[in-house]
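Design job #97: recover the sequence.
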């Protein structure tokens, strides 16, 4: 078989070898091999950073949940009269905040469970870019609601729209990134995305206790996110479609054009000839169907990742979405709780940044297990700490571990399914984290009322043990293995 890029392009400019028509399986193998042989370069890192910029606002949205909740409560949005239907949960002391968190993750669950397949059907790029439009419109409307009932309704609608964003990003990055860079690509993705968390915490600290121009501070925090997402939409327009997705849908010429352009730009960046492609066995030439995730080859992975996602989210968002409230429960007033939360939030992007040192050298599942272990221990310590310094220190340790675990598992679950079903499969297993987070918000409110921060910490620690067990026992190894080989 003659490779589409049989002669490595020269650095500047890179001549393109004349191509001959190839069958779909040969085209799949060739495109995958040409992508996987690309070395690290400014071009690739720029594409990954731009994709991450698009996902940055999902993190902004998810993390402002905890930071603006005290301001929403102060505005009276969680009173029984304001909550309307949601007031039926008044038996839980912090049910008001819990309903907002519940609607956040309920919307996300609907989005990833029922709409993630759109990226498999219509492509990674259109779903990725237009989900930002949904985010901007729905969160802007939410910012101007004056009852808790309508606030929660628009929170749910926003979640449905941007719920598919992170699933599409994971799929996008895994397919565009060369084999040797996948770990670092996901760590860079999380570094960029989580870099917004200290920013939203700072905005909350400065704005939530105030009312600039007569508008509640929490509303300004929400509107700033909508404005930033609008700018990001224009910046990400030139990101290419996934060549792996294109060739799988018979659009071989488009896939070849994008891959050739990437080869030319990477060769120009590195000023070296590209290494020869190493062909892998192509994926099976069969239609992608949802039921395949429960087939003989994939059902164990699907079950493992579903249970894992339900467990990990209890720790990840159980702390992140509740940290100001947990600090208040430890006797810290609202102003100081937001200040301490901001200091803790600064640590968010540094977990993935640390991961760049070992992301492609340490097995993915090992990184996940170590992260979960540290999260459980740090949370138990947080529940017993009294001094501000110790509370902040343990919060920082938890945050670093959680975000190392996060970039590793986002990479891991995208690797475990083939291109034809990757988005819908990742959407299904990831939807269980949204489902669990919706009810975990109510559960944490219940445990906080029942036994304080210690009861919450125990709940989180048990969930971490479950996550460690399923990944440790049932998770396959993926480090240094081509996507096509993992899923052959």
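Job complete. Output follows.
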């Amino acid at each position: 078989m003659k490779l589409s890029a049989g002669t490595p392009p020269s650095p500047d400019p890179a001549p393109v070898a004349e191509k001959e028509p190839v069958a779909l399986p040969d085209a799949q193998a060739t495109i995958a091999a040409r992508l996987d042989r690309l070395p690290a370069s400014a071009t690739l890192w720029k594409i990954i950073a731009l994709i991450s910029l698009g996902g940055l606002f999902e993190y902004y949205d998810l993390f402002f949940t905890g930071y603006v909740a005290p301001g929403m409560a102060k505005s009276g949005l969680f009173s029984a009269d304001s909550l309307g239907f949601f007031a039926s949960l008044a038996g839980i002391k912090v049910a008001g905040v819990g309903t907002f968190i519940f609607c956040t993750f309920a919307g996300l669950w609907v989005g990833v469970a029922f709409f993630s397949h759109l990226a498999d059907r219509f492509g990674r790029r259109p779903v990725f870019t237009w989900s930002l439009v949904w985010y901007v419109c729905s969160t802007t409307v939410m910012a101007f609601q004056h009852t808790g009932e309508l606030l929660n309704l628009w929170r749910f609608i926003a979640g449905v729209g941007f719920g598919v964003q992170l699933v599409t990003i994971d799929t996008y990055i895994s397919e565009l990134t060369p084999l040797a860079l996948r770990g670092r690509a996901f760590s860079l993705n999380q570094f960029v995305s989580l870099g917004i968390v200290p920013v939203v915490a700072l905005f909350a600290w400065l704005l939530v206790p105030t009312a600039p121009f007569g508008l509640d501070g929490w509303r300004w925090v929400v509107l700033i996110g909508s404005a930033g997402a609008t700018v990001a939409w224009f910046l990400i327009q030139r990101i290419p479609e996934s060549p792996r997705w294109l060739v799988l849908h018979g659009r071989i010429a488009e896939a070849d054009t994008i891959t050739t352009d990437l080869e030319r730009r990477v060769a120009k960046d590195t000023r070296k000839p590209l290494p020869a492609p190493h062909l892998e066995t192509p994926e099976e030439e069969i239609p992608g169907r949802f039921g395949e995730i429960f087939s003989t080859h994939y059902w164990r992975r699907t079950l493992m990742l579903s249970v894992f996602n339900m467990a990990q989210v209890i720790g990840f968002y159980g702390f992140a979405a509740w940290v100001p409230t947990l600090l208040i429960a430890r006797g810290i007033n609202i102003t100081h709780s937001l200040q301490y939360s901001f200091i803790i939030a600064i640590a968010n992007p540094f977990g993935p940044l640390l991961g760049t040192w070992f992301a492609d050298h340490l097995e993915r599942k090992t990184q996940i297990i170590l992260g979960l272990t540290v999260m459980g221990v740090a949370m138990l310590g947080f529940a017993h700490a009294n001094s501000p310094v110790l509370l902040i220190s343990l919060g920082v340790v938890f945050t670093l571990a959680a975000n190392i675990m996060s970039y590793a598992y986002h990479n891991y679950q995208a690797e475990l399914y083939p291109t034809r079903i990757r988005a819908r499969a990742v959407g299904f297993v990831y939807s269980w984290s949204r489902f669990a987070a919706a009810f975990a918000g109510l559960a944490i409110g219940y445990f906080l009322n029942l036994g304080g921060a210690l009861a919450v910490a125990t709940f989180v620690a048990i969930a971490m043990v479950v996550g460690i067990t399923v990944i440790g026992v049932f998770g396959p190894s993926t480090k240094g293995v081509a996507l096509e080989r993992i899923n052959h």
